[in-house]
Amino acid sequence: MRIDVEQDIMEINNAYAADNRQLFKNSGIFVINIMGSPGAGKTSILERTLHLLQNQLKVAVIEGDLATAMDAKRIASMGISVVQINTDGGCHLDAKMVNRVLPGFYMNALDLLIIENVGNLVCPAAFDLGEDLRIIVMSVTEGGDKPSKYPNSFLRTDAVVLNKMDILEASGMNLQQTKKDILRINPRTRIFETSCRTGEVCGVEQLAEYLIELTQEKKKHMQL
Amino acid sequence: MHEASLMKSILWTAQEALAPYKVEKVNALSVRAGKMANIMPHALQFAFESQTESGLFAGAILDLQIEPVSAHCRQCGLDYQSETIPLTCPVCASHDAEITDGDRVYLASIDFDGEEK
User: Fold this and answer.
1) Please, what are the domains in chain A?
2) Is residue B76 assigned to a domain?
């Protein structure tokens, strides 16, 4: 005999994501999910941006990694509230993992929660965490073909941070073509150009302004 | 990359669905996955085989269907399906689209020998 089940396998994740989203909404917190390959500069971007944000917003961070608390220590040294999630080899964060650590934050005192996902340009994109905004950090050394090779991730992102711009020339990446490819996959994506090592490129300031604006918008919306 | 954990969820869901039945043998599981669900068919097949060597699903086959992405064009309003990304509206050629389906994984049906408890 045959039975029709028609059950969405991601439903468990989606239920937790919906729960997270409600919790974030109740506290008026804006939530960002940062994704990107290992070594793209996710934590460095975070550090640079946090320096600009921390005087204006109350920020907390969730660090996702396969192992170690190295990234969380980097963030904690800035005096920012941070929780580390170790996935023990798991290739992505899911909504349940995030849900479990939320009691570790005093949510009503926060404006912005930034979740740094596991370094991986494939799997994290399939898991809604309950976030408001998705950012992909991509370094110029990864090669300009990555948006076309990993279209699913780029299709679902709100912003792309092109990092390591100080070594653009040595990387050989065609910047205009890469931007064109990103916008062809997702015409609504915002693109920021950054260099964490030198700080010369003004993309970090623009990124910080963008995040402050969106965070305040959500707060305002909540108070109405 | 997460096909193993996905398969675990699929088998757990199947087991729940079969709970009201006395099952002699499971013949096939039908799974539908959207093109945007990031599923590698052979990795899912491998996960299925390695997780069903014994137990309720031993000897069953996995029937996997990959479905296209469903999208809604934000420029001209057309609903269309696409096998490829970038999404391109077949009428106005815009890439600006909202994804309406094709990012999910469903356990569609189970074929088995058995009867209701």
Assistant:
1) 11-223 (3.40.50.300)
2) no
Q: Domains in chain B: how many in total?
A: 1
B111 in contact with A, Cβ within 8 Å: yes
The answer to whether B38 contacts A125, with C-beta atoms less than 8 Å apart, is yes
**Are the C-beta atoms of B59 and B24 separated by less than 8 Å?**
no
Q: How far apart are CA B12 and CA B58, in angstroms?
A: 14
Residue A10 — left, alpha, or beta (φ > 0 → left; ψ -120 to 50 → alpha)? Answer: alpha
Q: Does the beta-carbon distance from B103 to A123 stay under 8 Å?
A: no
Q: Which domain holds residue B22?
A: 3-67+102-116
For residue A13, the SS3 value is: helix
CATH code of the domain containing B13: 3.30.2320.50
* Chain B from 41 to 60: CB within 8 A of any A CB: none
Answer whether B116's CB lies under 8 Å from A7's CB.
no
What is the least distance, in Å, from the CA of B104 to any CA of chain A? 7
- B30 within a domain of the structure (yes/no): yes
In a domain, B89, yes or no: no
Amino acid B51 reads Q
In a domain, B58, yes or no: yes
Q: Does B86 touch chain A (CB under 8 A)?
A: yes
- Residue found under tokens 């963008």: A210
B86-97 pLDDT, tens digit per residue, is 899 999 999 999
pLDDT per position as a tens digit, B25-61:
999 999 999 988 888 899 999 999 999 999 999 999 9
Chain B residues whose CB is inside 8 A of the A2 CB are 109-112
Query: CA–CA separation, B16 vs A217, rounded Å?
Result: 43
This complex has an ipTM of: 0.86
Give the closest-approach CA distance of B107 to chain A in angstroms: 5
